[in-house]
Automatic annotation (TrEMBL):
Belongs to the PNP synthase family. Its EC number is 2.6.99.2. The keyword Transferase applies. It comes from the Bacteria. Pfam families: PdxJ. This is Pyridoxine 5'-phosphate synthase. The record marks 156 as: Transition state stabilizer. Keywords: Cytoplasm, Pyridoxine biosynthesis, Transferase. Catalyzes the complicated ring closure reaction between the two acyclic compounds 1-deoxy-D-xylulose-5-phosphate (DXP) and 3-amino-2-oxopropyl phosphate (1-amino-acetone-3-phosphate or AAP) to form pyridoxine 5'-phosphate (PNP) and inorganic phosphate. Pathway: Cofactor biosynthesis; pyridoxine 5'-phosphate biosynthesis; pyridoxine 5'-phosphate from D-erythrose 4-phosphate: step 5/5. It is an enzyme of class 2 (transferase).
Length: 257
């Protein structure tokens, strides 16, 4: 549709680092992957420095900031350690995510409503340093209101539950979860928050969620890196951009070239 604003694609390169760390060496290099994603049209790079450093390491974050001319979305737990790293690094944005050492991947959204006092101090410190602050939350009214009250710039709506229902063929549950995402996106935009989404998205899911008019950015990693094993990172990033553009109605000849 004419006049629609394109949805940005943030490529999460965590699992390039997972593969690198499998042998304890330096290959494949997450920074090289970020540069390849940029060449394929990615609008930003997302990297999650976990407390246990299971994939992305401190040196990766420093090199991404220094060597990759794309906005860096630094995902982190809301701990004093990570805030200090963020203040030293000064990424384009910090996305505060919940983190439990024993989890396989991010399991839920940040409990912004339950952590207002602690988060308030940290959000203020990050914003004072000129860093945009995103909260990774479930599409729930109280969490969205808390994000706005905290002065966050962005909410990233957790699409994991919806993607799990889709993958399991649980159509009614998937439909109900997508309705939560649809309502959450509208509510967040009404609060003046920039609306992102991510977790578990594949080509079809990204196309569907990109059709929500409030969505400004999608952050996608695990599926893309998995597909890149078969078809190459350049090809899968270009295909994902085309899926997102088709969903938003902003497809151009460049997307299908
Ligand atoms: C917050 C989120 O959904 C992901 O961006 C996060 O990075 C998932 O953690 P892993 O990459 O460790 O699976
Ligand atoms: N915040 C979501 C993200 O960066 C990527 O999540 P996934 O695609 O690796 O599940």
């Amino acid at each position: 549709m004419r006049g629609e604003r394109p949805v940005r694609l943030g490529v999460n390169i965590d699992h390039v680092a997972t593969l690198r760390n499998a042998r304890g060496g330096a290959h494949p290099d997450p920074v090289r992957a970020a540069l390849a994603a940029q060449a394929a049209g990615a609008d930003g790079i997302t990297a999650h420095l976990r407390e246990d450093r299971r994939h992305i390491r401190d040196s990766d974050i420093a090199r991404l900031k220094a060597e990759v001319p794309l906005p860096l979305n630094f995902e982190m737990a809301a701990t004093d350690e990570m805030v200090a790293i963020a203040l030293r690094t000064r990424p384009h944005a910090c996305c505060l995510v919940p983190e439990r050492r024993e989890e396989r991947t991010t399991e839920g959204g940040l409990d912004a409503a339950g952590l207002l006092a602690d988060l308030g101090r940290k959000v203020a410190a990050l914003k004072a340093a000129g860093i945009r602050v995103s909260l990774f939350i479930a599409p729930e009214a109280d969490q969205i209101a808390a994000a706005a009250a905290l002065g966050a710039d962005i909410v990233e709506l957790h699409t994991g539950a919806w993607c799990e229902h889709r993958g399991a063929g649980a159509d009614a549950a998937a439909e109900a979860e997508f309705k939560r995402l649809t309502d959450g996106a509208a509510r967040a935009a009404a609060h003046g928050l920039e609306v992102h989404a991510g977790h578990g998205l594949d080509f079809a899911a990204a196309e569907k969620v990109a059709a929500l008019p409030e969505i400004v950015e999608l952050n996608i990693g695990h599926f893309l890196i998995g597909e890149a094993v078969f078809d190459g990172l350049d090809s899968v990033v270009r295909r994902m951009r085309a899926c997102i553009a088709r969903g938003r109605g902003t497809l151009t000849l460049e997307d299908v070239a």
